[in-house]
Amino acid sequence: MYSFDVVRPATVADAIEALAQDEALPLGGGQTLIPTLKQRLSSPSVLVSLSGLAEIQGVCKTDDGKLAIGGGTKHVVVAREAAADYPALAALAGNIGDPAVRNRGTIGGSLANNDPSACYPSAVLASGATVVTNKRQIAADDYFQGMFTTALDEGEIITEVRFPIPEKAAYMKFEQPASRFALTGVFVAKYADGVRVAVTGASEGGVFRWTEAEAALSSKFSPDALAGLTVPADGMISDLHGTGAYRAHLVGVMTKRAVAAAH
Amino acid sequence: MTEVTMTVNGKSVTKSVKGNTLMTEFLREELRLTGTHVGCDTSQCGACVIHVNGEAIKACTMFAAEAQGSEVTTIEGMANADGSLGVIQQAFQDHHGLQCGFCTPGMVMSAAALLKDNPKPTEHEIRDYLEGNICRCTGYHNIVKAIMAASGQDVSGIAAE
Ligand code: FES
Ligand code: FES
């Protein structure tokens, strides 16, 4: 690693001030950033650790019935505390990486990084959640802007994510067994006004909505509603773990499984 | 350099560290606690698992500066006060849960974290919990058996020595 300082402010206001320094980077749980630093792919002058910000940790219900999760909340906490209100989201969090990773990694860190194979972006997009930062609220449909790219500005941090709670939902991940990332993962969420389907791990453009499947499932919420629907292999990730065509096929399979499992 | 103070295996320590000092380096090089192993340094193998405030974490993927004020337990803190092996360690010995021993510190720390939350795990729950701990030698059966035994459960139904 290149050398840098680490500071650990106790309030969001102090963190934002520290992030205004030249070449400062926020550090969430570090489960992606630390390996990146080890590869010398990043050379910050100072890392501003967000782990001391008690005000952005925890899970609660808002007055209008949404599930609000603090940006600094660890996966292990979401797995436990979202289980009663939004079981599909809790199950997703409880299946990220391995237990030791879930004890460090945070929802805000995962969303800010927007890895094309990360699990959380699919839940946020399929739920039509709102990403709340230190300065504004961003709708999920505007937040994700392609692989490792988001609407966040420099020095802006995710303080909360607000999830409308669906009637039924499920996440199905076809796991890449070595990294435990999603080779392809599909989150299906059924709301009173329609179904949303978000796919992670498959596309070179990062997480995306499969709108044809949404339309079919909104008129009939059943795996057979998807019969004959496919996504094109163009633009799908092709690597040593699977071709684009394989991933495109997985999108269909995992969507059907998610619909069948939704509860 | 930043000064950090934390409690490691019950003893308070204060040291000056660089920002990029990992917990593995802090424990092994600053404190000479070399029981925490570094198998991969890429967050995959679990040989470096320690507890920070009671939670299992990968010490190769956390900065020492972030452990300011924490309670840290390493494999060196797992023996009984008289120096004899702790329950989990003894079970690993009794059930041949190790061969070369390289993964063992991480296995024992992960097992201890599991048993704290789930004192009587099923075989499936043990295997699931250990997904971030890799062993090149044992084939895992005897590790699972040792953890079952450490939790006071019957191990006669578990395959293969
Ligand atoms: S050395 Fe930390 S996970 Fe392998
Ligand atoms: S005993 Fe050798 S790696 Fe596990």
Automatic annotation (TrEMBL), chain A:
<dbReference type="GO" id="GO:0071949">
    <property type="term" value="F:FAD binding"/>
</dbReference>
<keyword id="KW-0274">FAD</keyword>
<dbReference type="InterPro" id="IPR036318">
    <property type="entry name" value="FAD-bd_PCMH-like_sf"/>
</dbReference>
<feature type="domain" description="FAD-binding PCMH-type">
    <location>
        <begin position="1"/>
        <end position="168"/>
    </location>
</feature>
<dbReference type="InterPro" id="IPR016166">
    <property type="entry name" value="FAD-bd_PCMH"/>
</dbReference>
<dbReference type="InterPro" id="IPR016169">
    <property type="entry name" value="FAD-bd_PCMH_sub2"/>
</dbReference>
<dbReference type="GO" id="GO:0016491">
    <property type="term" value="F:oxidoreductase activity"/>
</dbReference>
<dbReference type="InterPro" id="IPR016167">
    <property type="entry name" value="FAD-bd_PCMH_sub1"/>
</dbReference>
<dbReference type="InterPro" id="IPR036683">
    <property type="entry name" value="CO_DH_flav_C_dom_sf"/>
</dbReference>
<protein>
    <submittedName>
        <fullName>FAD binding domain-containing protein</fullName>
    </submittedName>
</protein>
<dbReference type="InterPro" id="IPR005107">
    <property type="entry name" value="CO_DH_flav_C"/>
</dbReference>
<dbReference type="Pfam" id="PF00941">
    <property type="entry name" value="FAD_binding_5"/>
</dbReference>
<keyword id="KW-0560">Oxidoreductase</keyword>
<dbReference type="InterPro" id="IPR051312">
    <property type="entry name" value="Diverse_Substr_Oxidored"/>
</dbReference>
<dbReference type="InterPro" id="IPR002346">
    <property type="entry name" value="Mopterin_DH_FAD-bd"/>
</dbReference>
<keyword id="KW-0285">Flavoprotein</keyword>
From TrEMBL, chain B:
<keyword id="KW-0001">2Fe-2S</keyword>
<dbReference type="InterPro" id="IPR036884">
    <property type="entry name" value="2Fe-2S-bd_dom_sf"/>
</dbReference>
<dbReference type="Pfam" id="PF00111">
    <property type="entry name" value="Fer2"/>
</dbReference>
<dbReference type="InterPro" id="IPR002888">
    <property type="entry name" value="2Fe-2S-bd"/>
</dbReference>
<dbReference type="InterPro" id="IPR012675">
    <property type="entry name" value="Beta-grasp_dom_sf"/>
</dbReference>
<protein>
    <submittedName>
        <fullName>(2Fe-2S)-binding protein</fullName>
    </submittedName>
</protein>
<dbReference type="GO" id="GO:0016491">
    <property type="term" value="F:oxidoreductase activity"/>
</dbReference>
<dbReference type="Pfam" id="PF01799">
    <property type="entry name" value="Fer2_2"/>
</dbReference>
<keyword id="KW-0411">Iron-sulfur</keyword>
<feature type="domain" description="2Fe-2S ferredoxin-type">
    <location>
        <begin position="2"/>
        <end position="78"/>
    </location>
</feature>
<keyword id="KW-0479">Metal-binding</keyword>
<dbReference type="InterPro" id="IPR036010">
    <property type="entry name" value="2Fe-2S_ferredoxin-like_sf"/>
</dbReference>
<dbReference type="GO" id="GO:0051537">
    <property type="term" value="F:2 iron, 2 sulfur cluster binding"/>
</dbReference>
<keyword id="KW-0560">Oxidoreductase</keyword>
<dbReference type="InterPro" id="IPR001041">
    <property type="entry name" value="2Fe-2S_ferredoxin-type"/>
</dbReference>
<dbReference type="GO" id="GO:0046872">
    <property type="term" value="F:metal ion binding"/>
</dbReference>
<dbReference type="InterPro" id="IPR051452">
    <property type="entry name" value="Diverse_Oxidoreductases"/>
</dbReference>
<keyword id="KW-0408">Iron</keyword>
